Amino acid sequence: MTVIAVLPNSVSIAPAQHLALGRRFLLVCWTMDGATNAAGPITPSVDGEPVRPPFTTLTIDTGWGGRRVLSILPAPRDPRMPIHFIANNRVIAELRTESAAADLDPAGLLGSLDGAARLRVLRFLFDFACSTPGLHRDPAFAALCRRLVLDRAAEPALLAVRATAGGALLLCAGALSGRFGAISSLVVLSADRMARAPFDACIGPDPAGKGRIAFDMLIDRGLCAPGNLLVVLGANGVACRRFPEEPAGLPTLTDRLNARPDTPATLRHYLLSCLAQRGRRDASAASAVSELQALAPLPRRQAADAKRPIGASLDLAIPTSDGGLFLAGWLHDPHGLAAELVVRTPFGGERRVERFAHRFPREDVAKLYGSTGIDRSGFVLHLPSNPEPAEALQVTAELRLASGGALRLVPPPRPRAHADARAAVLGSLPPRFATPELLETVIGPAVAPLHAAHLATRGEPELVVYGERKAKPAVSVIIPLYRTLEFLRFQIACFATDPAMADAELVFVLDSPEQRDEVVHLLRGFHGLYGLPMLLLVQSANYGYSAANNAGVAAARGNRLLFLNSDVVPDRAGWLPQLVAALEERPGIGAVGPKLLFDDDSLQHAGLYFDRDLQGAWYNHHYFKGLPRDFAAAGCPRSVPGVTGACLLTTRAAFTTAGGFCEDYIIGDFEDSDLCLRIRGQGLDIRYAPSVELYHLERRSIGRHQGYTRGVASEYNRWLHGRRWADRMAELMARDWYDDDEVRPSQAGLVGKRGARKTAQVTR
């Protein structure tokens, strides 16, 4: 940029004075009368070249009608070079730097300025310094700023330190004049530097009732050293406060909030927001967010007034580790007043919902509003997004109305344990409304990360050994235990009185660790009574049927693996060698299963097959279920699509190649057919061995799991199974599963050419 020279003694060029701001910057000041035309930006120039940033300029009116201009800029390399200030391509001021910089005179700098102008000058200095590392870390400049502030407030009032938060933060509090106005900036001045406070302040009413403005703020412990100053810049003034010595025995933030249940929701929300902001880069602050939400959550808030034309509630809000957010609640809006739902997480995430696609009736809401007919006010949603620093336990929401108003909603915190959160999602709607689309787009995306997070908490199970372990057992019998123990004495008694079980290894896996002492004592008694060697694995939590079996296999020593339910009791001795013989009858057999009976001697299982329901979804079925024990077609050994995991014998090689039991299923359902399909995928056959008969008191353990019985876990597992294996199941069920030399169902009084499909009509 080329500047046309103007004579220094020209009356249009104002002489400027300069003050040193630390070692690298100058504060230049000049005055001019109000008639001087200096509109537009003012740019400093040295030797005809514009000064490179950072620099800034402020123009303010004086009390006598003139203008005072302040400019902060880097000091020139050659102190002898004059500095010109240019506006509208004209030099309007000149600084000659032959003389040393003057000391700062607060009276000269701020004199003839009203309160608003003085506030602008201080903000001008602080804002530039906070954004310029070379300046805000300069001890000389920090001292200069302290002098400016203390010139206005020689004895600043002390702040109060209330609590510790997130390890490195303190909660401080103070008060301001009721005329102070909105706080626009907070700056901390230490002896050798200045820094912007990490968070804004939370404003509240004066608890003493004196009409002052109370404020709370989270701030780094390192900034709270005694002697440091907090400069508060507001709409109508500047205030200064001192940090005191940190009191001994400060409570944690959670303890303080628990001790003060009347803490305003605005302060709780502020604390969460600040900790979440810091938690994006600080693991201790992210943990503090979870702790605060778990131990001192925001109070639940819903709009459930039958006298109002619109109501809503978020009953569940469950963020997941992949950034997704599952919502369940209700919206009663017969007049169409709602425009959108806006949901916010503490870490700054925001989701907007304009359409509630999956609705279902809520009898409680219909009763509240006296609705007639079908009131489909219930909803479930899954909102994907990016992962956040930690999984929030609680969110906030606004239901925005078309008129511009809003209803604030606060759901309860999500269950802290991943298993409990998973159960909450599965229990959020009645099973009859769990359509394939809803499972695909809402339930599945929420359940899968919660289930994976739960499984990730596993540690090594506790190992309890009874007797001497066999080095090479003929068969390892894996028996998961969950809640139901009443049939264990009958099962073990049958094992103890069967000589063929002497070569077997018994491996029990307890999936309900709360029963640990009871089961340890029970098995110790059985071992003392019968002398049977046994192994007990105690899982740290309930991780499901698949995980229990996989843990049992990892500890077992046999190359043949028998998976047996704890409610399965043999009909007679010698059954296990017969089952092994069926497995080894010829090469290429990957698994076998026996005939299973109900306690009334009717058939429970004679092989497993697949069929579709009226909606086309695949189900697992058992051949001839409910028919008499001696039903002719159930007495034929043959290949079947699969066998039940209640009693399934396979080899370690086939099991390992299949990848073990798939642990993606919830609690216990469809894992056995999934394993069978994986074994068949190796080109191996699966056989039904009717000569081996056992009683199965079906689903006694799973019936005691509330997470399974009170929700859509079964529908989820069926959907997951069908999504993975639909084509393979269709291919298998297109085959004829009856050999020509065996009795067909049609010969036993049943109708059908394909057998499996037609038999299903009779056996359901």
UniProtKB/TrEMBL annotation:
One Pfam match: Glycos_transf_2
Ranges for domain Glycosyltransferase 2-like: 476-596
Domain of life: Bacteria
Entry keyword set: Glycosyltransferase, Transferase
Transmembrane segments: none
Family statement: Belongs to the glycosyltransferase 2 family.
Protein name: Glycosyltransferase family 2 protein
Species for this entry: Azospirillum endophyticum
